[in-house]
């Protein structure tokens, strides 16, 4: 909570100004009953019309001052709350960007989205309400009690008796509310997750006729959200009657004793009216409090969820041993030195004792059954994850000793799943190097064998790519992803099964074009035909290297490789 609200600090002066205006409004509110009492006793009862008019005008003037203070307060409150939420959202986004994949995996995407949208909005609303009306409620209660004592200490005592009970009761309800609303926010996460999965897989849902099933799944999470929200909001149902009961009892006592005092002539009628007025204000403020508690409890739950993100340190940077920098022996050279790796939280190693070397400008094909650990191997090079044992050397330097940004700058990566962004085709190719000249873009797209297809689009390179590239074929998306990686001109180019959607001819042209590349290449593939063209092949099985060498060597030494080659030869034949 403290961590989250520290983002108010830059706006403390506007917040303080808003609070001062709110205090002015409150002051006017509290003075009004005093003036009313005066008008009743000295004006109405004494039949002094001039006095009524005079003090009536004062009342009106004060009301106008309160109105002005309210309007200006609203302006500054909303400025503070909006600026706070803008900064907080950016801070959360930046922190998420710095997450390692291991940390990222701890949160669902839907939950992160909810935290950055819904949770920030909850806290922003409460900040606005705090500056505008929230603090008014307790201050109005305290102010009313003080003023009641000023008017008539004996009668004011009856108002004080109930206040502590109400206060403790409200604190108890806030604690309950935080638990309940924490649960509600988790339900919102789940709802978003189901929605996100459904929308992402909408084609699959239609193809498998899973519409009805998906509707039931959505209905289930939506109804759980409804039930928990109703449960949380039910707190209100308990708060209001208890509040009203205690306050009405105090009011009755005031009236009963007040009547007695009027009869004995010890108290003027105006005092009773003023005290009743303060009692009503206290009841109103407590009711407002009850309403605010709901928002506060919800915001507290949200703030805790955001603090969870803000408290996570950047794990990758922490383990960097930057002082040892002094690399660049061989352009693009890569060495795996007895590398083992287990995913964070996992107990079985995904890679065990993997060793190999790829010389500058060489092409290594990585083969293996699905789940063998090929993608994992690639992801260790740019340090998406840290190795559990052993070392990975890029250009003779342990990746842990590289500056992370520099390391990633020398690596071009094409993931298994081609991901495109909303924008033009040119924007997508330039994504990794926004300053690249059009000539460089063209060179990359020609090499990736996508230039001709782009030219065929009516708007060429300005063609808008739909969300996730919906308006492009799988092969087009793969080639655009390759062009994007080529444009970066990394020293090491990693292609994770990135040509699976290409036809034989296009793939051959692509490899021919890529053979001119200066970069060292790591190509994950299932095809012997692709592997054959590599300088060396690394065959892994269940995370272990089972064969390493050229195509011819492996045919001689590895029965598994030979089996795969034979099976594919049969298919090709
Ligand atoms: N993020 C992750 N967290 C935990 N385990 C993972 C993660 N990603 C992959 N694994 C596990 O690691 C193993 C290797 O996965 P990897 O994706 O590296 O295989 P692969 O050889 O690339 O498979 P494929 O050819 O099917 O893409 C698998 O058993 C998989 O379940």
TrEMBL record:
Residues 334-567 form the ABC transporter domain. It is a multi-pass membrane protein. The chain crosses the membrane at residues 12-35, 55-76, 133-151, 157-181, 238-258, 278-297. It is found in: Cell membrane. InterPro entries: AAA+_ATPase, ABC1_TM_dom, ABC1_TM_sf, ABC_transporter-like_ATP-bd, ABC_transporter-like_CS, P-loop_NTPase, Type_1_exporter. Residues 16-298 form the ABC transmembrane type-1 domain. Its main location: membrane. GO terms for molecular function: ATP binding. The keyword Transmembrane applies. Keywords: ATP-binding, Membrane, Nucleotide-binding, Transmembrane, Transmembrane helix. Pfam families: ABC_membrane, ABC_tran. The keyword Translocase does not apply. It comes from the Bacteria. Gene3D superfamilies: ABC transporter type 1, transmembrane domain (1.20.1560.10), P-loop containing nucleotide triphosphate hydrolases (3.40.50.300). This is ABC transporter ATP-binding protein. It comes from Lysinibacillus capsici. The lineage of its organism: Bacteria, Bacillati, Bacillota, Bacilli, Bacillales.
């Amino acid at each position: 909570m403290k961590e989250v609200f520290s983002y108010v600090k830059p706006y403390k002066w506007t917040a303080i100004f808003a609070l001062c205006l709110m205090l002015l409004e409150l002051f006017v509110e509290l003075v009004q009953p005093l003036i009313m009492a005066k008008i009743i006793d000295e004006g109405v009862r004494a039949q002094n019309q001039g006095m009524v008019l005079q003090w009536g005008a004062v009342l009106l003037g004060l009301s106008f001052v309160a109105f002005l203070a309210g309007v200006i307060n609203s302006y500054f409150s909303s400025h503070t709350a909006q600026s706070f939420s803008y900064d907080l959202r950016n801070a959360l986004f930046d922190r998420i960007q710095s997450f390692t994949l291991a940390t990222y995996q701890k949160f669902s995407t839907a939950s992160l989205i909810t935290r950055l949208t819904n949770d920030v909005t909850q806290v922003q609303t409460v900040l606005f309400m705090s500056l505008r009306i929230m603090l008014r409620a307790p201050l109005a209660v305290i102010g009313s009690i003080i003023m009641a004592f000023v008017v008539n200490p004996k009668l004011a005592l009856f108002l004080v008796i109930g206040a502590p009970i109400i206060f403790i009761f409200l604190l108890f309800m806030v604690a309950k509310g935080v638990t309940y609303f924490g649960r509600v926010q988790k339900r919102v996460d789940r709802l978003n997750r189901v929605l996100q999965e459904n929308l992402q897989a909408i084609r699959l849902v239609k193809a498998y006729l899973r519409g009805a099933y998906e509707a039931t799944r959505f209905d289930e999470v939506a109804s759980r959200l409804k039930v928990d929200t109703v449960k949380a909001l039910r707190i209100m149902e308990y708060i209001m009657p208890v509040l009203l009961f205690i306050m009405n009892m105090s009011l009755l006592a005031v009236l009963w004793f007040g009547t007695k005092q009027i009869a004995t002539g010890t108290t003027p009628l105006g005092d009773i009216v003023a005290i009743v007025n303060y009692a009503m204000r206290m009841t109103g403020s407590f009711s407002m409090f009850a309403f605010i508690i709901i928002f506060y409890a919800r915001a507290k739950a949200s703030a805790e969820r955001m603090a969870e993100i803000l408290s996570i340190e950047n794990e990758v940077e922490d383990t960097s041993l930057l002082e040892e920098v002094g690399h660049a022996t061989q352009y693009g050279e890569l060495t795996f030195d007895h590398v083992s790796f287990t995913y964070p939280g996992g107990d079985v190693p995904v890679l065990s004792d993997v060793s190999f070397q790829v010389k500058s400008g060489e092409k290594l094909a990585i083969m293996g059954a699905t789940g063998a650990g090929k993608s994992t191997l690639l992801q260790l090079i740019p340090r998406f994850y840290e190795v559990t044992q052993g070392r990975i050397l890029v250009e003779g330097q342990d990746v842990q000793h590289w500056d992370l940004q520099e390391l990633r700058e020398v690596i071009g990566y094409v993931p298994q799943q081609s991901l495109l962004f909303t924008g033009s085709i040119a924007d997508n190719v330039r994504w990794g190097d926004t300053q690249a000249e059009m000539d460089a873009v063209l060179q990359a797209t020609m090499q990736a064998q996508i230039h001709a297809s782009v030219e065929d689009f009516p708007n060429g390179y300005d063609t808008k790519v739909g969300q996730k590239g919906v308006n492009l074929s799988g092969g087009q998306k793969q080639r655009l992803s390759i062009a994007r990686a080529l444009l970066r001109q990394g020293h090491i180019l990693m292609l994770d099964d990135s040509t699976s959607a290409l036809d034989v001819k296009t793939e051959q042209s692509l490899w021919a074009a890529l053979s001119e590349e200066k970069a060292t290449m790591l190509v994950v593939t299932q095809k012997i035909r692709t592997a054959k063209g590599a300088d060396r092949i690394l065959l892994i099985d269940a995370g272990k290297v089972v064969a390493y060498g050229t195509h011819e060597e492996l045919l001689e030494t590895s029965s598994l490789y030979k089996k795969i080659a034979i099976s594919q030869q049969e298919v090709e034949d």
